[in-house]
Amino acid sequence: MQNAILRLLTTLVTLFGVAVVVFVVIRLAPGDPIAMMLPPGASEDDIARLRANYGLDRSVPAQFGIWLSGVVQGDFGTSISLRQDVGSLVLGRLPATLELAGLALILAILLGTTLAVIGTLRRQRMAESAVDLWNGMMLSIPDFLWGLIFIVLLGVVVPLFPISGRIDPSLNPDYATNFLLLESLVRLDFRVTADLLSHMFLPALALALPLSAVIAQVLKQSLKEVMHLDYVVLARAKGFTEITVLFREALRNAVLPTLTLVGVQFTFLIGGTVIVEKLFSYEGLGNLAIDAVINRDLPLIQGIVLLFAVLFIATNLIVDLTYAALNPRLRHG
Amino acid sequence: MSVVLEIDGLEVRTRGGQRLLRGVSLSVETGETHGLVGESGAGKSMIGKAVAGILPRGVTVTDGSIRLDGQDLLALGRTKRRRLVGERVAIIPQDPLTALNPCRRIGGQITDRLIHILGWDAKRARLRAAELLEEVAIRDPARVLNAYPHEISGGMRQRVLIAAAFAAEPALIIADEPTTALDVTVQKQVLRLIGDLQARHGTALLFVTHDMGVVAKLCPSLTVLYAGHVVDQGKAARIFGPAPHPYARALIAATPRYDRPEESLLPVPQDVIDALDREVAQADGAHG
After folding, report:
1. Residues of A in contact with B117 (CB under 8 A)
2. ipTM score over 0.90, yes or no
3. Do A104 and A212 fall into the same domain?
4. pLDDT in tens, A18-34
5. Which of A231, A237, A241 is the closest to B101 by Cβ?
6. I want to staple B76 with a disulfide (CB 3.0 to 4.6 A). Which of A42, A84, A318, B80 is the partner?
7. Mean pLDDT score of chain B, rounded to an integer?
8. So what's the pLDDT on residue B265?
9. Same domain, yes or no, for A149 and A232?
10. pLDDT band at B35, cuts 50/70/90?
């Protein structure tokens, strides 16, 4: 209980720190939101009036005070470029990004685990070298480059997948939430599910490939160490096949050290959604973030960054909880 | 009595060509306890590992035969060999702290082989596991079956491993220094336990140890190894008798004794080692 309170407090301090840094940095950066809004010939008077209207004529600390008092009451301000409430705008986009990142994570885990298992079972053979080579390649190409490669190869040269948007507009599902993928599954509306997945597949794969290589590499190393331990050797002597031994005895123990790293890497993946979503015109948080930055939409940038920070912290929390669930030694007390 | 394990001319080498076992031959009959003694590095554990098919990576059997119930293990295919060993041979490992999977409950680790290799149904396997835990003097079997290894003591874990080894009624048990990692008070209990269970179940036991005191108590016959070479082999009565092989005598003198401390813990004399090295070199020469 005490732990939980401490954790909540540190979370709040972290979020406050993030808010201060972002608030200051985006105001120091060149570019003026007001200049972006008015036509080129606007008078000094108009500019000043609009500036006062958005509170931008005040000092930075004063602006921060106003913004913070709003946030405490659940008001994240109004987007300058879209003229909508930042809170609802950002939360509206969040489900799309969560679904994309979640799918990417699942792909990365499946791919990474498969590669690690193959590399471990076929040690010191061609297959292991092939896995190492593949990992090196996956690691050295960043997610957005994979995105571009996929768009060119699988979207244009061989048009297997749609390369733009989240869903075919003609489907236009009338859903209660913006978790379209999850809701379509719950409603057994598989036509929508299939369309969503076909739109999400390439961006998710682009995000997943580098992470899958990290998982494969670390898990393979970890498995290699565990496969020499006494209880694994003993299980082998009991007459179990190598693959049974690997899955029943070794994998769970080998996953533990991998998990922390996957958590950290997953936060990079969430960061990667910013560019990848833009590439695929996927209507998520990342796409919104880029537009907000281009338009110098200060309140919107502020809101998005804060939400990203919350996502990172939540990821770490989930990793810790999973760790405890997988490791019986951490379970009691 | 029938011969359970018969090893003939066993040669084990590393990939680099280093000889770990030099033409070792021995046999163990039903219900018999055979001791394997020697200093560390003599290759005594390698014999057990070769039989169980768990030699470390890069170490292989290069010559000789291992017969289990009359079947030559080395002539069998991998799958057949794994099954046969899984059904007929069990191991009591050296270190109870590392020989149990920390992420699995004790029960599953005893019953997995009964269920998946011997084809028992889960209920019967569980009953059997509880029965065996009682046999190794664990008072609350139901609780221990549901516990994780970190929840029970080291001595208790070793007893769990002994129970697991005997549960499947194997023809042969290889005990690989089962008391080395335990403290002295627990050692005695564990030895008595292994001896009792072995007598009751009529299992053949290959007992690997560096402790001559343990051998004297437990093993009617033994093999003495030096650098992978059989130095002496035969009845314990003869080897512990008035005229043992000099190396065996040196090993006995190296054993700690509480009654005569000044006569114990003596290092092996250099002239004995020199004589052994000559003997090994000679055997190597004869072998080609």
Report:
1. 238-240
2. no
3. yes
4. 989 988 888 887 777 77
5. A231
6. B80
7. 87
8. 65
9. yes
10. very high
Tell me, yes or no, whether A80 lies in a domain: no
Cβ contacts of B222 within 8 Å, gap of 6 or more: B34, B35, B36, B37, B215, B233, B234, B236, B239
Please tell me the predicted confidence (pLDDT) of residue B261: 66
Place A221 in a pLDDT band, splitting at 50, 70 and 90.
Answer: very high
Task: Please name the fold of domain B3-94+172-287.
Answer: Rossmann fold (3.40.50)
Question: Could you tell me the residue ranges of all domains in chain B?
Answer: 3-94+172-287
Judge whether residue B27 has pLDDT over 60.
yes
A144 to chain B, closest Cα gap in Å: 39
Chain B residues with CB within 8 Å of chain A CB: 52-54, 57, 82-83, 85-87, 89-91, 93-95, 98-104, 109, 112-113, 116-117, 148, 150
Q: Is residue A226 part of a domain?
A: yes
Rounded CA-CA distance B61/B51 in Å is: 10
Token couple for A211: 């992470």
Tokens of A213: 């290589």
Q: What is the number of domains present in chain A?
A: 2
Confidence tier at A333 by pLDDT (50, 70, 90): very low
Instruction: Name every chain B residue with its beta carbon within 8 A of the beta carbon of A244.
Output: 116
Task: Indicate the SS3 state at residue A86.
Answer: helix
Are A239 and B101 within 8 A, CB to CB? no
Same domain assignment for residues A17 and A159: no
Q: Is the pLDDT of residue A4 over 90?
A: no
Q: Do A106 and A238 lie in a common domain?
A: yes
Structural domain range at position A199: 92-294
Q: How far is CA A160 from the centre of its chain?
A: 25
Q: Which of B87, B91, B102 sits opposite A329 (nearest CB)?
A: B102
B37-53 pLDDT tens trace: 888 778 888 999 999 99
DSSP assignment letter at A295:
T
Which chain A residues are Cβ-neighbours of B87 within 8 angstroms?
239
Q: What is the CATH number of the domain that holds A118?
A: 1.10.3720.10
Beta strands in B33-170 (DSSP E): 33-37, 59-68, 71-72, 89-92
Interchain CB distance below 8 Å, A238 and B112: yes
Residues A164 and A269 in one domain: yes
